[in-house]
Structures are given as structure tokens and as C-alpha cells.
From TrEMBL, chains A, B:
Disordered: annotated span: 1-31
Annotated source species: Rubripirellula amarantea
Top-rank taxon: Bacteria
General function of this protein: Modulates transcription in response to changes in cellular NADH/NAD(+) redox state.
Name assigned to this protein: Redox-sensing transcriptional repressor Rex
PANTHER family (alphabetical): REDOX-SENSING TRANSCRIPTIONAL REPRESSOR REX (PTHR35786), REDOX-SENSING TRANSCRIPTIONAL REPRESSOR REX 1 (PTHR35786:SF1)
Record GO cellular component, one term: cytoplasm
Record field: transmembrane: none
């Protein structure tokens, strides 16, 4: 689906380039929908691996994410990964290849700013770590929250943000502050040479081209759903 | 941005069609990016109205959401709304037109299932109501949470879900349960004739074509961000 945030200054960054891993071809050109699908395959493949299933064919993988086997084969062949007739794809190889392309082969240091109820939920969310994202610190301005630890992540005073950015050089930041604080926080993050921002604040961040941003606007998602529901067939 | 969930059975529903409102042309065909942009304009226009700003031109509106004035004009002309040279667009008219198209002209009844930390955050999120979404009830299976009220919304026993769906006929549902419960909950929602599901569970829901779904996968969003950050220019 196309998030409205799409338009808000999203840019590829020329920042640190990740290690490519296991002989995959150099970073392929991928459309945003293709990246989305790879991310979905990745999730399902990890489940297969957990269930000790070692191989999968394009038909089964397609069923898991509701796309046709042909689309699966095209997506995977763009990674230089070819299934064998009657055997399918090796699950571990696919995970490694997709992970290398999506950047999950590397560990990313992430900071979170704004520990309101959403920030709190994001800190407790277990999906990030599994994909190689380590939230190293959270920041808030509320004295009642500063000093707390949520899911192993310490909540620091947002006044220390500049200093922590300088010392620890996190690559990514999650912004979950109220709209009126988002622009100021983003400016600090840019100055602290963060390369990418996942923005939950309902406001459009204007960032220099070397900083990537993905916006998640929860109300807009519900609005898009409503639009679909009432759209005549 | 393209959410990986895009592929997961999203369909236009032929469910209740909303009132069209104030003489806007019948529902235009809109691309998903255009819907996303309308949703962003809508947000910024509401801010302008709150600041008692009565008119806006395509250049200013474009700046607010980082698109060119030409794109703004094209999007708005598809709604049959034309700005006047030197004056611009009337803010209230735009809000009414966009609202009618996006379905914010109507009130939507919404239920939320799964009051973990994310569900809790969603209940406290103030962005929904402003757009015409009223969360009427939340459901959980945890006896410690049942009976609580969060942000005015009562938390009911999920065992009562079928009955509440039958009595109150909510159009939309927000699913924030763990992955392993999502499919079962979705089946109940479909049976209870919910028309659209906003799914936060990290799993792909397979739904009949008359039910629309928008998937929000937080880990995938972070993964997409990482992909952008490491992508060479």
C-alpha cells in the first residue's frame, strides 16, 4: 500500500553502505512494492526456519503472502536466487540473500525518542530485534519516565540526546513525539548524523536528502481503509 | 511508501457506500499514492482551519506535504475543486470535498481487538476521532484488563465479540493481537460483517474479497527504512 508519507522527502541515502554478505549480486534495483514483498517473504521464511522446514517452493511461499508463484520467482530471481524444480528454494539461503538486500544481515543501532504510550508499545514490540534492529536507548522529557527501563532499554533525558548521538552514532531513529516537537527532534537527529528516521509523529518532516525517512501515520492508515471500504467495485 | 501488506488480500469492498456529501463528483478513481496525498492535504488543511486560515494556494499546500504545486493542482482538480488565481482554494471547501472522498464525512464505528501495549497506545491515540472514527469498544482476553476503560473506551471480554458485532455492527476493526490469534479473530470479524480491518498483527490475513484490509507491519517499516539508508545513490 502506498503510505501518504511516501512523498515526504524520502530519499535514498549515500550513508554507510552495508556489507553485502554471501555472494549476492550487488544491490539490485528494487521497486518499493518489491521491497515490501521481500520483507514479507523474509518474515514467512523465518517462521519456516523456526519450524525446521528447510526448503520451500514458489507456490507455497506465494500462498503465504498472497501473491502468485510467478511474482515470487521474479522477485527471487532478481536476487540471483534460483529454485530447483521439484525441490524449491533453500530456506536458509533465501533468508541470507533477502537479509543482505534488506539490510538485516547487519546490526542496526536504533534510538527511540518519545516514550508516550506509542513509544512505550514500540519499545515492548519484539519484532525489531529479530530483524537486526537493536534499540540502544530511548529519550523522553518527562522526569517521571527518565531513569526507567522498558524491555531492557533505558529511558534517558532528551537533553542528553545530542551527546548520546555523538558518542554512540546510532544509524536509525524512531520518532514518536507529539507533532509539535517532531521537527526540532528531527533537526537534532540530522545533526547527530542519523541516516534514517521512522516517523510516527503526524507531521511532515523536511529533511536533507542524505537522510531517509519512512512515515507511519496511523490515522491515515485508517482513512485509507475507510476509502477502500466505501469505494464502489 | 509501499507497505508490504499491500499484497495481502487488499480489496475494494462493495459494502455500505458512504454519503457523497456536498456535490462532489461521484467517487473518482484514485491511485493509492493519490489517496495518500489527499490524506496528507486533509491533515494540513485541518491545521490551517484551526489557525483560522481560510484559503491556501497550491504552492503553499505543496510545500506542507513536499509535493510540487502541479501535483497538488492535479489531485485537487480530480475532486472537481478548482482554485482561483491569486486567491487559491477555500480551506473549508477542500476539507469537505476531500473528507467526502476519503470517507471522513461519515462517522465510522470501529472496534479494537487486543489491548496489549500497542492496542493500549492505539486507544489513547487522538488522531482517529478527529477524522470521524469512533472506537466504540475494545476487546481482550486478559481478565485483569477486562472491565477497564481507556480513553473512554470500555475493554470487554473477547468472548463477547460475536455478540457485540451483531448488536452494534461496527464497520471497521483494528486488530492488535499476537500473530497466532489474528486469523481466528479475523474470521469472527468477517462473520460479524465488518467491512474493513486495520491489521497490526505480523501475519498475513486471508479474507474474502468483500472485506478490505490495510496491514501495518512495524518491523517491516523499519526494514524498509534500513533498505533505503544503505541503498547506493
Amino acid at each position: 500500500m502506498t503510505n501518504p508519507g511516501e512523498l515526504s522527502g524520502e530519499r535514498a541515502s549515500s550513508g554507510e553502505s552495508a556489507t553485502e554478505g554471501d555472494g549476492a549480486p550487488s544491490k539490485p534495483e528494487l521497486s518499493q512494492p518489491a521491497v515490501g514483498r521481500l520483507s514479507l517473504y523474509y518474515r514467512e521464511l523465518q517462521r519456516l526456519l523456526e519450524s525446521e522446514i528447510g526448503s520451500v517452493n514458489s507456490k507455497s511461499l506465494g500462498k503465504m503472502v498472497n501473491v502468485s508463484p510467478a511474482v515470487v520467482r521474479r522477485d527471487l530471481s532478481s536476487l540471483g536466487t534460483i529454485g530447483r524444480r521439484g525441490v524449491g528454494y533453500d530456506v536458509q539461503t533465501l533468508i541470507d540473500r533477502i537479509g543482505a538486500v534488506l539490510g538485516s544481515g547487519v546490526q542496526w543501532k536504533v534510538v527511540l525518542i518519545g516514550v508516550g504510550s506509542l513509544g512505550d508499545a514500540l519499545l515492548r514490540y519484539r519484532g525489531f530485534e529479530r530483524l537486526g534492529f537493536q534499540v540502544t536507548a530511548a529519550f523522553d522529557s518527562d522526569p517521571k519516565r527518565i531513569g526507567e527501563t522498558i524491555a531492557g532499554v533505558p529511558i534517558l533525558d532528551v537533553a542528553e540526546l545530542d551527546q548520546v548521538l555523538q558518542q554512540h552514532r546510532p544509524e536509525l531513529a524512531i520518532v514518536a513525539v507529539p507533532a509539535e516537537h517532531a521537527v526540532g527532534i528531527a533537526a537534532k537527529l540530522v545533526q547527530g548524523s542519523v541516516s534514517g528516521i521512522l516517523n510516527f509523529a503526524p507531521t511532515t518532516l523536511k529533511l536533507p536528502p542524505q537522510v531517509a525517512v519512512v512515515n507511519v501515520d496511523l490515522a491515515s492508515e485508517l482513512q485509507r481503509l475507510a476509502f477502500r471500504v466505501q469505494m464502489p467495485k
